[in-house]
Structure formats: C-alpha cells, structure tokens
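From the pipeline queue, job 12 of 40. The input is one protein chain; the requested action is below.

Action: predict structure.
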Amino acid sequence: MFETYITAMNSVIADIAYNVEEFSYIDPEQITVNFKKAREGASEEVWAEITGLSEEDYGSVQQREGRVEMYFYSNSLLFNGTPVKYIIDFYVPVFFNLSFKNKLITIFHELYHISPRFDGDLRLFKGKANKHGPSMEKYDKYMEYLVDKYLARTPEAAEFLKSDSEQITQHMKTSKIPRMPKPEPMLFRITWC
C-alpha cells in the first residue's frame, strides 16, 4: 500500500516540476519520497523534511606513522538504478491530516528548499535565517501563491491528496512503514608512504 502512496507522491512532484516554471530545474527522477511515523508527542507543525545528498565527495587528510592517508566519504544512493539527489520525508499521520491545500503547500515548501543548481545541496538565503529567508511567513505566502498558480490548471496528479485522510491515517497507523535508509558515508582510504 505504501508503494502506491510513494508512486502517487512522486507523480505529484513530477507534475509540479513539469508545470510550475519556478521548479523547472528539478529532475523528479532524482528525488525520492519516504514516509516516517511522527513520534508520539512530537510537534504537530513538522509535516515533512528534505535531505540533500550532495554530489561532492568530501574527505580528510591525516598523517599516521610517517604515512599520509586521505579518507574520502561519498553520499551516493541509487533508487531503481537512478542516482538520488534528494529525499523528502513526510510524517505520518500529521501530513495526511492537513487540508488538501496545506498538503500541497508543504510539498512546494520542501521542493523550494532544493538548490536551483539541483546538485544535492539545499537552497540557502543570505543572512541568519538562511533556510527560509528573512521571514518564514513570506516564504510560506510565496508557496501559497505558487500552489494557487498550480491549482489554476486543475492538476490530476494531486487528486489523491484529497482522499479521506482518516482512512489513509488509519492504514498507516496499523501498518509497518517501509523505510528508505539515508546513505551512510562510505570510507575510502588512499595511503602515501
């Protein structure tokens, strides 16, 4: 059953990327969706989160017993044979308890965190509030504007988000949610003597 929701969410993301100019830089094939159970007593205001899997490998250089060793870490993840650059986690049941429009605003909110370079990094704004810009309220108002623009063309892909949230939530409460593991950095070592 979760595979159906994942496929439907991926279809919504693809529809947004193909039909909303502000997201035209997104390759939906390199984004995957995951569901997580919201922790008991957790904030009801966290409905989703995005993780970027940067293309850049990173490493460190260490000297040990006269040898120079360089350690490389890689954050690579393949999904159906395609490299994934972003994972969007939706929290169950809180996400599905939102209104139809707020579900879409949440999806747009997470997609807008994606860097315009689409390189696995997240978009950063100038200043201290670098994730949402100087005003979270303005950020969300802009997402609402983009959602209204999207809804003006009556998108069919998003229709499943109108389904009975009680039924979806009940199913998700009683089912084991399959987890997409976040990649652990892999260590590669090169030694010079």
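Job complete. Confidence is low (pLDDT under 50) at residues 187-193.
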